[in-house]
Amino acid sequence: MPVDAHILVLGAGVTGLTSAMLLAEAGYEVTIIAAHVPGDSSIEYTSPWAGAHWRTHASSEEPMLCDWDIQTYEYWSALLDTENKDLQLHRSGIKMYESYDYWDGPVTEDLWWAPYVRNFRHVSESQEPLISISKRTPPRAPQIANAVACRAMAINVPQYLLYLLEQSRSLGVKLIKARLPVGRGLKAALLAAESTVTVNGRRLPDCYVNATGLGARKLCGDEALYPIRGQTVLVKGEANAITTRIGEGHRTYCIPRPGSNSTILGGTREDGEWSETPDPKTTSQILERCSAMVPELLTGRDGGFEVISVQCGLRPGRNGGPRMEKEDVDGTKVVHAYGHAGAGYQNSVGSARLVRRLVDESLTPTFGTARL
Ligand SMILES: Cc1cc2nc3c(=O)[nH]c(=O)nc-3n(C[C@H](O)[C@H](O)[C@H](O)COP(=O)(O)OP(=O)(O)OC[C@H]3O[C@@H](n4cnc5c(N)ncnc54)[C@H](O)[C@@H]3O)c2cc1C
């Protein structure tokens, strides 16, 4: 049912696009303004650099984040069921795989999510794929001490961003590519957004959604935001499964990129590092750690990986967690939705549903201090 309100979403990463799609589904008129849009490549635009897979990092002491991750898992499971039934549907680029987590020592995290995912199980050293990995591991290298498995999703991120944009467009969402001014305060940026949107033939917005990721640091002066740099290596071939290995001081993953005959290897985390230049030593470490886990990708003439590209992306880390709240900026209604760190895909649906609720609340008339 149409809702007579116009929402202007700032940002076209996974957070802004998912929010725009759900707001449009709820009947709002929605416009997006973003400096970078699906198809673009920039260190200022995190979403295209992600792996990405569903593997929660939330702890049971963060119930909101746990809930978002589970909501997204369920939403994607239902989406895949629908896509599998109708081959004519536009493909999202998401696929379900076996997903293995390996620890070189004790399990260092709480597995609260086990009851919510499909086919969760512990894997013993006398089971595959552990038998094969152990055979391939050089004698003095660390062995896997603990392993669990489940069914989880990998996301072809360039395809998924385009899918979200197409879904949004089919619901009437308009995308405007424009950079908003920074350094003069959020109100000045909102006024610039307002004039951009009206010049492009849309009416004045009733509410804004700020989904500018790491860009919010400058856009609204939020110094709690910081980059968590991740380096990845894209290699030829689609791995048979998703693999995450957690060892002393490192976490390494192999994430097949559905339908693209390629796999992302990575897992590094460098807090506060802004550089977009990959470190060759880190590349060698990633390739070495992954080689025992995905032998099906060792197709190079030298028996190693066939590297397509090496890149870095900046996860939007934030002290205190994502900022999800309403703000009245000198009479302008804003809902903030940024700072999703390394979980912006896997929590995107839960986060976007909260955005929709906060937008609904922002537009609900209040009388005095009482809320209807
Ligand atoms: C290496 C790596 C691996 C990752 N792996 C995973 C994973 O496996 N699973 C997972 O869930 N997540 C993963 N992530 C995290 C995920 O990618 C991020 O959480 C997510 O992409 C953040 O999206 P966003 O929409 O909030 O920000 P962004 O994608 O950065 O989008 C911000 C948007 O705001 C716009 N913007 C900013 N400033 C302005 C301005 N002044 N004017 C106009 N527009 C502006 C930008 O142009 C852009 O459109 C990974 C990230 C990296 C780097």
From TrEMBL:
SUPFAM superfamilies xrefs: FAD-linked reductases, C-terminal domain (SSF54373), Nucleotide-binding domain (SSF51971)
Keywords: FAD, Flavoprotein, Oxidoreductase
Record-listed D-dopa binding positions: 253, 315, 342
Gene3D superfamilies referenced in this protein's UniProt entry, alphabetically: D-Amino Acid Oxidase, subunit A, domain 2 (3.30.9.10), NAD(P)-binding Rossmann-like Domain (3.40.50.720)
PROSITE patterns hit by this protein: DAO (PS00677)
A GO CC term attached to the entry: cytoplasm
Gene Ontology molecular function terms on file: D-amino-acid oxidase activity; FAD binding
Binding annotation for FAD: 46-47, 212
Biological process terms in GO annotation: D-amino acid catabolic process
Cofactor: FAD
InterPro entries: D-amino_acid_oxidase_CS (IPR006181), DAO (IPR023209), FAD-dep_OxRdtase (IPR006076)
Keyword Oxidoreductase appears in the UniProt entry: yes
UniProt domain FAD dependent oxidoreductase: residue ranges: 7-356
Region (Disordered): 257-281
Keyword Glycoprotein (UniProt): no
PANTHER family: D-AMINO ACID OXIDASE (PTHR11530), D-ASPARTATE OXIDASE (PTHR11530:SF11)
Family of this protein: Belongs to the DAMOX/DASOX family.
Protein name as annotated: FAD dependent oxidoreductase domain-containing protein
Originating species: Baudoinia panamericana (strain UAMH 10762) (Angels' share fungus)
Lineage: Eukaryota, Fungi, Dikarya, Ascomycota, Pezizomycotina
